[in-house]
Every structure is written in C-alpha cells, then in structure tokens.
C-alpha cells in the first residue's frame, strides 16, 4: 500500500475556506494535464458504474456457452468469456463492484479511521495511548495477511472482502488523522475557542475537521486504488468475490489467468480496467496533494 | 477352486486390435473438423481427439540411467499412509513401497483398461470356495530398503500382517481393513486372511494404491509414520523437503532385477499452474497434465515434439451433490427434476469441445464394452425442462427455492460448469443458487464432514480402481466413504450381492443394475467430465498411462518401467 | 536520547502483546479447524479418533490456556510444532526465513536502484517529458496486480525464451549461481511496486529540498548541478524516503506471498498463507508474530535514526 504522504508532514495553515480549496483544486487540474486525465478517468468510472445497466449491451450473467472464448468482434467488442458471457458488459458492471469497493472498504475504513484519529488526537491522554497501541498492533500485521485472515473468518464474499480491506485501512488512516488533529490543535483559534468555553464538538467541526479533510481525501483516493488491488489479490488466493459476480479482480485472477494463452482478452480488458482505475485514483491523489498541500503550493 | 480373476481378460490379438483402434482414431480425428461446426445431439458421447489414448511400450531395449523431473501441483500432506489417501503422498509412495497385488504396468498391459491383477509382493493367491479366506504366497527374497533400521532385511509375512492390522486400527483405510477377522502367518511367506463376510473381490482392495506395505520398525521407533517412509519399492527417498522437492533414488536391491531404469526422480513442488506449464516448456519438467484439448494444442504450438496422450476417460469423478438426507432433496422427485433441468450435453459440446463424457459414476467397462450413450443414462438424465418443472411443482415447489453451492476449483472448466448449472436451474426451475468458491482445505473438510446443507460440486475419491471400491465401499449406506449421503436399500442389496458373486458375466449384469438404479433414483448426479491429457517430453519411453491409474498421480508405480532415451 | 529510546521500547511491548492477541483471536474464530486439513483427501476419521487427535494437539483446552501456552513458547523461543506436519516450527522457519529475507532484500535493492535515479531525473526535469514518462511508469507499476505481473513474466519467459528460473530452491550458500537465477525475476516483480512508490516519494521530497535556501545558495555560488543534487540535496531528501521504505517493508512481506507462490519459492509468505488456509494455528501465529516483531524493530530503528539525524524530534 503506497502511502504517498510522508510522516511528520503537517498542515499548519488555518484553512477553513472550502471554496478557496475547491478553487485551488480546479486551478491545478486545469494547469496540469495529468490532473485532467485523472479527473476524467474518475468521472468515467463513476458514470459507468451509475449507468451500467444502460451502457452494457448484454446481461453480464447471461451465459451462451456456444460462443465461449470468442475473440473481440463487432457483436462482442471485448470478446466472450469461458461460458460465453459478454466481456464488455461484465467489465462495465465490474465498475459497480469497484464502486462498491470504494464505498464500503474505503468509506468505512476512512470514516472509522477518521473517528479513531479524531478521538485520539483531540482528547489525547490514556484513551489516545490505548487506541494508538491497538492501531500500531494492527499495523504490524501485513495488510494482505490481515485481510486474508479476516476473510477466512467471515467467509469469502465480496462484502466480507470489503470489510477486511476496511480493517486494513483503518490504522494507517487513524494515524494520519491524529497527526493532523494534533497540529490543528496548536492553532491559536483552537486555543481561544477552548478558552472561551466552546463545546468540543463545535471546535472539532469548525476548526479541526477542515484541516483533517485534506489528508483524508488524499489518502482515500490512493486507497481506492489499493483496495481494488487487494480485492484482486484475495480473489487470486481464492477468498475474494464469488462467481458469477463480474468483479475485475475475479475476472483477472481466475478466467484471465486460466485462459491466458487461448483467450488473452479475458485478462487484458479487466486488467486494463483495474490499471486505469488505480492509475486514475493515484494520479488524482497526487493532484489533490499538489492543490492542497501548502508546502508544495509555495512552488508558485 | 482355482483363482478366478473377475476382470476383463486381455484381448487375444493384441497387435491387430491396437492397430485397428489407432487407425480408427485417426480417421475419426480427420472427420472431427467437419462435425465441429454444427452442434448436433450426438449419439455417442465423445469426440475423438487427435491424440492417441494408448502409448504402446517401446520395442527398443531399455536404457539405464538419467534423471526424471516433474513439476507437481501437490505437496504430500503427511507421509503417513494411515492418515491420508491424498495423491500428494501416492505420487511417490507407490514408488517407495509395494502392495501385495497390483495392476499391470504400462509395458505389460494389453490396453488402457487392462485390469488383470498381478502379484506385487505376492507371487500367487487363492480364495477359499466361500470367499472368506484368502491365502497369499509371498515372493521370496524381497528386501526392505537398505537404510536403518531395516538395513535391507527380508520382507516376511509378519510384516504384512502388522501393516493390515495397523490399517484396521485407526485412520482413513480402516473401513476397508475392518472386514478382516484375523490374519494367520503359518510360515514366513504365507499370509492367510480371514474375512468377516464373503468378498470375491478382496484382493482388488489390496491392490489399491493407498494400501502400501510400510515398515513396522519405523512405526515402533518413531511412534508414527510421519517422518520416514521406508518400503520395498523400486525407489528410495533421498530427500523430502517440504514445499520444495522430493528426491527419489533407485533402489539397487529391488526384487525385479534390472529395474527400475531411471536413476533418479525429482518431484518439484509447484503450486501454480502457469508455472508448471512454463516448467514443461523450458524443459525443467518432463511430465505435464492439461485438462482440455485447447490446452494441449497450445503446448503443441511451442513444443511441437512433445508427446501427448489422451488420458482415457472411463468415468466421472465429479458431480452435483445434494444434501440428500434432508428436505427438499430427500424427495426423489426433486432430484429427478433437477437432473432433467440441466443441459449436460451442452456442457460437453461447449466447455469440453465435444471431448468430454456425459457422466456416470462407475467405470463403464465393468458392465459393458462401450461407453454409455445418452439414452442408456435413463429418462431422468435427459434434458427436459418442461417435464422437470412439472415434476418439481408436483413435489411441492412450484416457485422453486433458494439454496447454496460450495466447491473448490480443481480445474478452470469446473467453474464454467458450476455457473452453467446455476443458470440452467434458475432459468428452468427458478432455483436460486448462491455459489461459494472455497480453498481446498475448507472445501474438503466441509464436504467430507457430511453435515453441509444445500448443494456442492462433490466427488468420490480419485484413487479407486477396483470394482468393490467403486461400488460397495462408495455406495453402501453404512460406508464412511459415501460422501453423497444416500441410503438406498436397493443399492445396498445389489452391491452386497455383487461382492459375493464370483462369475464375471453375472458381475457385469449386477453392476449394470447398480448403474441403472443409480440413474433411476438419481442418487449421485454425475456431471460431464474430461480426464484430460498427459504431455511428455519426447525422449521418454514406456509412458502409457492406464485408465484410473494416472502415472503422475495414483498410478505412479508404473514409472518404474519408464526409461529415458537420450 | 536514552529516555527517548527507553520510552519507545516501553511502548513497543504492549503493541506486541496486542498483536499476539489479535492474531490468536483471529485464528480461533475461523470456521473449520486444522483437524479437517489433516484428513487430507479422504475423511473417514471417526468422531472418536477426531477427539483423540484434538486432545493430542491441545485444541480442547480453554482458549486462555492455549494462549498462555503459546505465549510462553514465543517468549522462550521454542515455537512448538505445526499441527499439520508435526514438524517443529523452528525447523520450518529456519528453512523459509532466509528465502523471504533474500527475496525482500533483493527486491528492495532492485527497487531502489531503479527508483532513485528515475526520481532524481523526474524531479530535476520537472514537468518535462522525461518527468511525465517517469511518473506514468511509476503509477503503472502501482496499478498492476503482483500476481498478474508475475504470471505474465513467467509465462512469456517460457514461451519466448524457453527459459524460466530453475525450480527447486537452491540456497545462496550452497549454489549461488542457481540461487541468483531463481531470485532475479521474483525480486524484480516484487521490487517493481516498491520502486514505483519510492520513485514518487524521491521525486516529491527532492522537489521540496531543491527549493530550500541552502540549495539556492549553492546554485548562486555556481556549483555544478550534479554536485548539488548528490552531495547536498539527495542526502536530506532521502530521509523521508528511508522512512517510506521502512514502512513499505510490511507491504513487501505481504507481496512475497503471491510472488513465492508463482515462482515456487518456499518462503515465509507462502508458508503463512497456506497455514491460514489449512488452519494451522501454530504456524500462522508464530509467523505473524515474527513479522510483527521485525516490523516493530524496524520502525524503532527508523525512528531512532530519525531522532539521531534530527535533534528536534528527540525532545518532543
């Protein structure tokens, strides 16, 4: 899992203006072609996922074994798979699984990580010590192994694979959030608010959270890519998504590998889809960082 | 009464019959492309492939020496033959050890289905008239491997007695050996076995690849057989590094002089299929197995000199298993409906390219000479979706129901089959199946445990060669190997009668009745299957793989007759 | 300085205990257990025999007792036996650890050897075509699943070159040439992803450092570009990179799982995955604890190096 943010980096400017942030992002995207590419890729992915049922020419589950392993043609632009299902339709529907990956795995992982990090960082003390030790303990177990163990406990399915990946995401996220909260707390505004007796949740909402959203979103965008890869690895090991679900990871690791020589299109297209999605997310994370990281903004 | 070997006798005119079959095979192969375009309902279940199913032994004198390597998918789970029937162990245990009796090796067999019992450690054997007492005369001068603690001492009857008693005591072989009442050893070379009930086919059970004779001293010294595997066989274990390799070296004191031919056999642990294929292509592996015609063709493209043998398919090992002891599957109408709702011919035509078989559970040559046709598989086998729907409605499920199916992907075609079945049942009967694809251990444990619900892509164990194993041991309601969980008094009666019937013709008739009953009651819903192809480097000789005894797996004992022409 | 070290050490211990509890708990909650794996491909083990096996293996004891027994085994460095093979775990570890360590180290070396130069080029020629090329290559490296790359490599090596790394692991000490042949491709595959992440990190930290005042001064003084980069900038830029690499070690170890399976190397990754799937608790617990201890130690070392290099951190 490539954590692109270096440890120890803090966001020490009191950023509270969401509008200016979005404007900064837009400027960066416009200026950097790679930023535009990544934004474009993500939009395509989201739209495909939403409108899959309209875009897909065939039912992704409809098997026509007579035309199995057919190479790409006009009728089936991506060819057909081992029981004659249209690969294009399956790849399109696969974007829904990836969206599910994003929402469930990264969503839960990020939210829970954020809550843990907030609680830890804001109130510090013994709670912080305990929580951070638990997070450290989780981080000593390599991600894939942890995910594998959790999925083996729960029973292989897409949802459970997502939950397992969420568990892998939480510790790292919480640590970054905690760091951001700690540095945000040093802000004079926070001190003042605490002095005049503002409620904690108020302080968190208006002063801490805005500082935290930037690193969270950057991490989340990178994790979106990684989560897709972990799901593919879990499928390779046999404990991820179940057939006949059209997940890119399952398509790549099972039929893609089994028929690699006879029908390379079974692997090329899901593989391309995975790569483009991960590519897009990683690049977008870069772009976000370029836009929001104050240190880099100095570049002018 | 002389020993009656209830087996198909080898054909008299071997040479001409083999020639004819070869010629017929090539002709059919030439016609196949013409037929391939259309997908008619075939009268015969199998298309011929361009590869022969029989490799005759080499006429040249065998050469001694050299090294044989094979990249293997299986690691032995344990070395202890009492604890496992796994092919991971048999792939070399059948070379380090012998059994009392065995089946022909590839250079003595008349054809792939030649199942004449031959003596391995036993020279001759005889059954009493009531088939309750079997007497075996051991070969003289058979030596255990010359390693401590055996140090090359002679094998005696007491060794055999000890083994069989241990097998009966505990472990996975116990069901077979528990029918032994007692064993006498009146002299060093005679073993007399008393059975509790008559069994005309008892010697066949001793010929199964899992019934190897192990060393008593090892068990007594170590307390178990997990650390050392010492036998009387043509090869000795020089090195056994878990997850890396097993190294076998030639036993110079083997009781068949001049054999084995090859000096060393290395089995390399290679869990990934793509890697095994790459190993064969780059010359690091001499033997490779592929499941389908397309895979074989792909190898021929990069290695045109490779020799491909079609591994003759005589039975199916896998099928749709239902939790038959519970509703809804305990109702025969439900089973019949499900069977009629699955288009198996289409699976053969598409997934197996016409090369697989329709699916039946007993090797066909035990009851008839030709492979069963679709018609012979009974009315409930045919694809009749409307009839199926009617029957299921009659059984009380007009709107279908939901269920689960768990399986392990032994080969990629299996996943295709499972998903096609899922679609068929949904479309025709509105049965919703939720698939769980599991890893091997979880699948195996759950399946063998026998407490699962719903459906599974189940199997019967792959090593069985003998008729008794295939019928009584697998199908009797009380057997621990009856994974399909059916209890049919009709079958119980038939298989018990079968093992008491000495006459071969009667046996065939009874076996046929078992086969028909099975399909009538849909006790085991067999699915299309293809035994696949074995691929050999061109310099190997005597590579013929015999039916039910694949020589990279359970049939490895025949590798003692293989030689390398380099 | 010493209080810092002592404090960090003291904090590591509860972390390790928690890790052990997590792993232990996970193993016990899994459905199916090691005994079903022992039945191999048959399964006619009667319930009575199953019970006896269970007792022999100590699986019938209450959980807390099993945990304490295992904890004691860990602490006294005698990890007990594998349920599956009855072989002492220490033997299995002695054989598999060198494989994984060699793989990981080679992967890191290869990865860094590629990543740092590309990162430098990317940073110094920012926004020019070579920068884009480098960044695109890096992100591609991060986007390809390990198993896919590994499968591609080994399949096409066989088809195009009729050559694959020799199977049947040979140790570095007994047969170094075969060993290097075996490890080159898998290390490259593994290192590819590491190099992608490292390259991006190198690029961004170098970019930062190149804007620092002391570098500008060096420019102004008229020092050559190469001297500036390698003598002044890179050293400081590499600090976060080292941290990243240390952090990536965990990912590297996870990646060995897949690469070892495809290239048939008997390392710890493969051992652990198979142990998880076989429910061989002792092996999984021991291996994961070993990795945990290694990672904690590594983190400690990295932090200490950091503290030594940057005095501000010591006094936090």
What's this, in brief?
By secondary structure, chain B is of the alpha+beta class.
Please provide a written account of the structure.
The complex is a heterotrimer of chains A (300), B (566) and C (316). Chain A has 300 residues and is an all-alpha fold. Chain A is built from twelve helices and no strands. In chain A, helix 2 crosses helix 11. The longest helix of chain A has 38 residues, at 200-237. The two termini of chain A are 30 Å apart. Chain B is an alpha+beta fold and 566 residues long. Chain B contains 16 helices and 20 strands. Chain B has helices at residues 14-36, 87-96, 157-169, 174-177, 202-207, 216-222, 273-281, 293-302, 332-340, 344-350, 385-394, 412-429, 440-449, 467-475, 489-498, 504-521; strands at 67-72, 101-102, 118-119, 122-127, 133-138, 180-187, 190-195, 235-241, 245-250, 264-269, 287-290, 307-310, 318-322, 402-407, 432-437, 455-459, 525-526, 533-536, 540-541, 563-564. A five-stranded mixed β-sheet of chain B has the order 15-14-16-13-17, covered by helices on one side. A four-stranded mixed β-sheet of chain B has the order 1-10-9-8. Chain B has a four-stranded antiparallel β-sheet with strand order 4-5-7-6, covered by helices on one side. Chain C has 316 residues and is an all-alpha fold. In chain C, 79% of the residues lie in helices and 0% in strands. Classes of the chains: A mainly alpha (300), B alpha+beta (566), C mainly alpha (316). Chains in contact: A-B, A-C, B-C. Chains B and C meet through helix 2, strand 10, helix 7 and helix 13 of B and helix 2, helix 7 and helix 11 of C.
């Amino acid at each position: 899992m490539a954590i692109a943010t270096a440890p120890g980096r803090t966001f020490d400017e009191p950023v509270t203006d969401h509008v200016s942030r979005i404007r900064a992002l837009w400027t960066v995207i416009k200026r950097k072609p790679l930023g535009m590419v990544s934004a474009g890729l993500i939009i395509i992915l989201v739209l495909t996922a939403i409108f899959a049922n309209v875009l897909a020419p065939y039912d992704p589950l409809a098997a026509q074994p007579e035309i199995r392993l057919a190479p790409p043609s006009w009728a089936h632009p991506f060819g057909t798979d081992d029981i004659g299902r249209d690969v294009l339709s399956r790849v399109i529907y696969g974007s829904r699984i990836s969206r599910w990956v994003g929402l469930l795995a990264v969503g839960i992982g990020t939210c829970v990580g954020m809550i843990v990090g907030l609680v830890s960082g804001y109130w510090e003390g013994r709670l912080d010590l305990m929580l951070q030790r638990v997070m450290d303990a989780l981080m000593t177990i390599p991600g894939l192994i942890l995910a594998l163990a959790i999925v083996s406990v729960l029973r292989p399915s897409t949802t459970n694979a997502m939950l397992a990946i969420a568990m892998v995401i939480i510790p790292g996220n919480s640590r970054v959030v905690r760091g951001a909260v700690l540095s945000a707390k040093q802000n004079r505004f926070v001190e003042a608010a605490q002095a005049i007796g503002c409620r904690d949740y108020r302080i968190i909402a208006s002063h801490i959270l805005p500082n935290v959203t930037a690193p969270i979103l950057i991490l989340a965008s990178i994790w979106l890519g990684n989560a897709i890869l972990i799901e593919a690895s879990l499928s390779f090991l046999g404990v991820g998504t179940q057939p006949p679900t059209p997940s890119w990871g399952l398509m790549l690791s099972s039929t893609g590998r089994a028929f690699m020589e006879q029908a390379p299109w079974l692997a090329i297209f899901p593989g391309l889809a995975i790569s483009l999605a991960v590519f897009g997310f990683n690049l977008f994370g870069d772009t976000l960082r370029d836009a929001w990281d104050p240190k880099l903004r100095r570049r002018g | 009464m002389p020993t009656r070997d209830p087996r198909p006798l080898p054909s008299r005119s071997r040479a001409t019959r083999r020639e004819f079959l070869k010629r017929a095979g090539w002709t059919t192969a030439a016609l196949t492309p013409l037929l391939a375009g259309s997908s008619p309902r075939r009268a015969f279940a199998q298309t011929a492939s361009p590869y022969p199913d029989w490799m005759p032994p080499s006429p040249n004198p065998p050469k001694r020496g050299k090294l044989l390597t094979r990249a293997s998918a299986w690691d032995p789970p344990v070395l202890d033959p009492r604890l496992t029937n796994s092919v991971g162990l048999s792939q070399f245990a059948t070379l380090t050890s012998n059994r009392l009796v065995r089946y022909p090796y590839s250079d003595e067999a008349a054809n792939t289905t030649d199942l004449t019992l031959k003596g391995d450690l036993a020279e001759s054997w005889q059954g009493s008239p009531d088939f309750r007492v079997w007497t075996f005369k051991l070969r003289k001068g058979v030596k255990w491997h010359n390693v401590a603690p055996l140090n090359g001492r002679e094998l005696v009857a007491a060794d055999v007695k000890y083994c069989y008693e241990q097998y009966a005591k505990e472990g996975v072989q116990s069901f077979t050996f528990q029918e032994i009442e007692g064993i006498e050893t009146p002299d060093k070379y005679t073993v007399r076995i008393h059975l509790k009930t008559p069994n005309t086919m008892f010697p066949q059970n001793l010929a199964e690849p899992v019934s190897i004779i192990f060393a008593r001293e090892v068990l007594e010294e170590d307390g178990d057989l997990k650390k050392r595997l010492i036998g009387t066989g043509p090869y000795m274990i020089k090195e056994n590094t878990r997850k890396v390799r097993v190294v076998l070296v030639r036993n110079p004191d083997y009781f068949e002089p001049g054999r084995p031919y090859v000096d060393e056999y290395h089995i390399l642990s290679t869990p990934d299929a793509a890697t095994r294929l790459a190993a064969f292509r780059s010359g690091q592996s001499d033997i490779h197995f592929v499941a389908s015609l397309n895979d074989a063709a792909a190898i021929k493209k990069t290695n045109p000199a490779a020799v491909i043998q079609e591994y003759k398919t005589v039975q199916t090992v896998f099928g749709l298993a239902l939790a038959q002891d519970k509703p809804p599957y305990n109702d025969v109408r439900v089973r019949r409906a499900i069977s009629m709702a699955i288009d198996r011919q289409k699976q053969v035509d598409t997934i197996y390219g016409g090369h697989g078989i329709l699916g039946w559970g007993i090797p066909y040559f035990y009851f008839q000479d030709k492979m069963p046709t679709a018609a012979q598989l009974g009315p409930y086998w045919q694809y009749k979706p409307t009839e199926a729907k009617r029957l299921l409605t009659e059984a009380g499920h007009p709107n279908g129901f939901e269920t689960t199916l768990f399986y392990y992907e032994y080969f990629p075609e299996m996943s295709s089959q499972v998903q096609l079945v899922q679609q068929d049942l949904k479309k025709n009967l509105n049965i919703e199946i939720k698939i769980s694809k599991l890893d091997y251990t979880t699948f195996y444990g759950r399946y063998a445990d026998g407490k699962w619900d719903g459906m599974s892509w189940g199997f019967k164990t792959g090593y069985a060669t003998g008729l008794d194993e295939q019928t009584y041991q697998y199908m009797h309601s009380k057997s621990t190997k009856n994974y399909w969980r059916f209890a049919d008094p009709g079958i119980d009666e038939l298989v018990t009668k079968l093992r008491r019937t000495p006459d071969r013709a009667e046996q065939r008739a009874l076996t046929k009745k078992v086969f028909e009953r099975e399909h009538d009651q849909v006790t085991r819903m067999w699915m299309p299957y293809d035994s696949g192809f074995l691929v050999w480097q061109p310099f190997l000789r005597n590579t013929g793989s015999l039916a039910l005894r694949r020589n990279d797996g359970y049939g490895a004992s025949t590798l003692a007759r293989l030689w390398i022409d380099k | 300085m010493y209080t810092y070290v002592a404090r960090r050490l003291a904090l590591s211990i509860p972390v390790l205990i928690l890790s052990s509890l997590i792993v232990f708990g996970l193993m016990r909650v899994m459905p199916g257990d090691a005994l079903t794996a022992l039945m191999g491909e048959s399964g006619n083990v009667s319930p009575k025999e199953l019970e006896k096996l269970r007792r022999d293996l100590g699986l019938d004891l209450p959980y807390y007792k099993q945990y304490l027994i295992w904890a004691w085994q860990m602490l006294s460095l005698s990890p007990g036996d594998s349920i599956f093979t009855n072989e002492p775990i220490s033997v299995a570890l002695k054989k598999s650890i060198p494989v994984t360590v060699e793989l990981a180290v080679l992967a890191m070396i290869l990865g860094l050897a590629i990543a740092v130069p590309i990162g430098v080029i990317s940073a110094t020629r920012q926004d020019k075509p070579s920068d884009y090329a480098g960044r695109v290559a890096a992100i591609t490296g991060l986007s390809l699943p390990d198993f896919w790359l590994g499968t591609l490599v080994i399949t096409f090596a066989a088809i195009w070159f009729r050559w694959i790394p020799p199977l049947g692991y040979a140790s570095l000490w007994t047969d170094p040439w075969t060993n290097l042949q075996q490890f080159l491709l898998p290390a490259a595959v593994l290192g590819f992803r590491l190099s992608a992440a490292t390259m991006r990190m190198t690029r961004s930290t170098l970019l930062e450092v190149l804007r620092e005042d002391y570098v500008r001064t060096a420019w102004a003084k008229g020092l050559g570009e190469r001297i500036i980069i390698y003598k002044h900038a890179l050293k400081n830029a590499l600090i976060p990179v080292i941290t990243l690499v240390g952090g990536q070690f965990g990912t590297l170890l996870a990646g060995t799982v897949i690469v070892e399976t495809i290239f048939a190397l008997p390392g710890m990754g493969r051992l652990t995955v198979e142990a998880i799937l076989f429910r061989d608790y002792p092996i999984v617990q021991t291996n994961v604890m070993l990795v945990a201890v290694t990672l904690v130690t590594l983190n400690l070392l990295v932090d200490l190096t950091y503290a030594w290099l940057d005095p501000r951190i010591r006094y936090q």
